[in-house]
Every structure is written in structure tokens, then in C-alpha cells.
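Quick board copy: two proteins, each given as sequence then C-alpha cells.
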Amino acid sequence: TLGAFMGYSHSHIGFDRGGHGSVGSYSLGGYVSWEHESGFYLDGIVKLNRFESNVAGKMSSGGAANGSYRSNGLGGHIETGMRFTDGNWNLTPYASLTGFTADNPEYHLSNGMESKSVDTRSIYRELGATLSYNMRLGNGMEVEPWLKAAVRKEFVDDNRVKVNNDGNFVNDLSGRRGIYQAGIKASFSSSLSGHLGVGYSHGAGVES
């Protein structure tokens, strides 16, 4: 299977010491998917991103510092696994590798602060499994609740940021973290479906 996609997302960020920010992301990409009758599958995705970031910070002195910048990103993802089916139950262990890079131009805040960072990079592998149960209701609607658990390991540990040309700060998110997700898929008709999911991740300095 070959295909293409586009998308847009918007994230709001709050800071513990006051202030806020936002990130808008436009994306365009393509994917390829192959599955053998045995249940073995191989998926690949390539995606381009355009990020528009805005920040309205609050300094320790109480003053405000505003700014914005634009950047571009490129990412790729490859995943392989095996789908096992027993009646209505489905178990899918998988392994994946994901890479991403984004250019980070120098930007200035309204109070004169300057920030410059090297290109942001991320490379991580993920090992996990998804368990789902498929149900067909009396009205013909199909519902599939699912659970997912995985371990992710980030390899990049040297994303650096320089503030006011003085010193290097290292954004090190390398290490392992656990990922736990649950959701439900619903097919209302051959042309209408929906999906709802929640997730939690913890480890290596990150909790979300």
C-alpha cells in the first residue's frame, strides 16, 4: 500500500514560572505498508514539517519577553512486527526505529535575549506490543478496544543551546522510558470511522 497525507497540529505550552507559548506544525508526507499472509508486516513513513513557534515568557525580575521563530523538520519511521489472531483477539509485537531533525535558527526576544541552537536531532528505537479485541455489534458497527505497552530508547544526548552567546546548555533526553496507551476504534460504516485514545509516558527526564 502506498499513500500520502497532510496535517496540522497546534500545541499550547505553559511555564511553571509564568508565561506561555504555542507551536503550530504543518506536515506533509508519504507512507508505504506491506503485509504477508502470515501476519508479518513492514511499514515506512517519511514526513516534512514546518513549525511556527511563539513564546510570551516572564522573567525572574517580573518583566515580559516575547518572540517567535520558524523552523523546518524532516522525519522518518520504519516499523516491523507480527500480527497474531485468535478469534476476536489480536496481539501485535513490534519493533520500530524513528529519526528526526529540525533546523533551529537564531531568534531574539523582545528584552534583547538571544538564543541559538544546533539542529535538533532525535533517534530512538521502540519495542512493544498491542493487544486488541474486535467486536461486531448487532447494528453492524465494529468496535475494537486496544491496549499498548512499549519501551523507547532515545540515543541522541547532545542537542545544544547557546543563550546570549554565553555557555552551552545541553538538552539531553537520552535514555529509556515506558509508554502506555489505551484506546478504542469504531467503524460506523464503510466510509465513516472514529478513534479515541489516551497515553502516558515516563522515564529519562520526560513525563507526559
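And the next:
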Amino acid sequence: MTAVVPTVVKEGDMVRLTCSTACPGYLIENPVWSRDGEAVASPTFQARLEDAGSYQCAVEPLRSNAVALDVQYLPRNTTVQVEPPGEVSRGSSVNLTCSSVANPPVHNYTWWWYNGTTPPTVSSMLVQVGTGQVLHRPSLEASQRGHYLCQARNPLGEHNASALLQMEETTLGKTFVVVLCRGGVTVFATLGIVLVCLWSRKQRRAKEKRPAHDSQAGEIAYSTIGNFRETRPVKHRDSNVNLKEQPFESPEAGEAGGQHVIYSTV
């Protein structure tokens, strides 16, 4: 008994498993199929990647020899790895490695370059920059940054993947940014110092003016107090003149027996 299995199919092709015997014209009905020791649900199916393996048919107690089924497919899971990763400096070297899964294996890797955020729609805008699984770029220039597209190909087709190669800013650009930042910090610091000095000077002047004003006021008060003399109210004599009559006896009066009146002020 022999299992009749297509040895090579492409992914997506229809597969029909048949089983025959050495007896001419004898057809085995409803054989039991297995793949790598596991039962197969149906002898007819659309080939998938996981359908590849070794097939046997059996009619108890007989079992056929195993026949391999090879499911082929075009490249897939293509990736591009940049080494060293991240941004690279001008003048340094970099390696780009392309990897892909395919059956049969990829036999051709082609590298293309384009500058932009999305792949160009016209193939003529792509620039071919190399072949092989690894692309080496020595002494990088600013004009070489951009997207690098890897095209992996086998007999069934091709598959693409790309990676962005970024380059660090030039030393001049970094220096300019650093100087600009430092200059800004210096300007703000100087402005702050000037404002503090002006504020301190204003406060100092205000303090100097305030004691002078207070001192002047004190002197004025002092001079006013010093020049002030306490004067007691002057008692004026009564304007009314009290005239008292004092008798005055004159010797001559005694003799004459007459009296004269003398007015005096008290």
C-alpha cells in the first residue's frame, strides 16, 4: 500500500491525498490518514504552512510508507536591524541586516534607499544602494540618512521591510544650542541680579530718607521747646487808684490850727 501525496505544493494550493495498493485497479476506500503520527481530519485541504510534514495512509492492519509533503511559501516576517541602534554620528559606520522567513529560502536581498516618511509610490524614486543580507555603510554623511528598504526574494515572490537611519546633530549645531541655552541663562541671571540691586538701592534710599525726615522733625520740635519760655501771667495792678486820705500835720498847721490833705498812691 502506497500513499500518493504531492511532494511539493505552494501555500494556498489545493491538496488531495490518495492511497493505492500494488494490486492493479484496487482502490482503497476510506483509508485513515495521519501526519507525523497525528490524525488528519480530511484528505482534501488547502495547503497551509503547518500542513507540511510526513503523511501515511492505513487500512487496518496495513499501513503505508510515509510520504513527505513540502509546503512552500514566499518570504514573510521580513525585518531590518540597524547596528548600532539609535542615532549614529556623522563619519561613523553602520550595518543593516535583513532577515526573512521563506520556503524555499530567500536567495536574493536587494537594498533600496529613499528619503521621506512613507515609501514612494513610483519605483523610480527608489535608489538601489546594495545587495546581500547585510548592508555596510562606512563613513556616513548627512545625505545618507533616511529609510533603507530591504527586498527579500525567493522563487515564489518577494517581501519588503524598511528601517529609518537617523543621524545625530552636528557638533556645530550642538555647540550653537548649548551656547544659546547658556546665553539665555546668563541673561536671565544678570537681569535678576540687576533687579535685586535696584530694589536694594531703592530700599536703602528709602531708609536713608526716613531718618533724616524724623531727625529734622525732632530738631524743629526741640528748637520749639527750647525757645519756649514759660511766662507767668503778669499781674497788672488795678487801674483803680485807691486814694487814701492821710492826715498830715504840718508844724505850721499846728500852729495855725489848719489841716492839709495829701494824696498818695497805694
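Board note added afterward: Residues 172-181, 212-262 have pLDDT under 50 and may be disordered.
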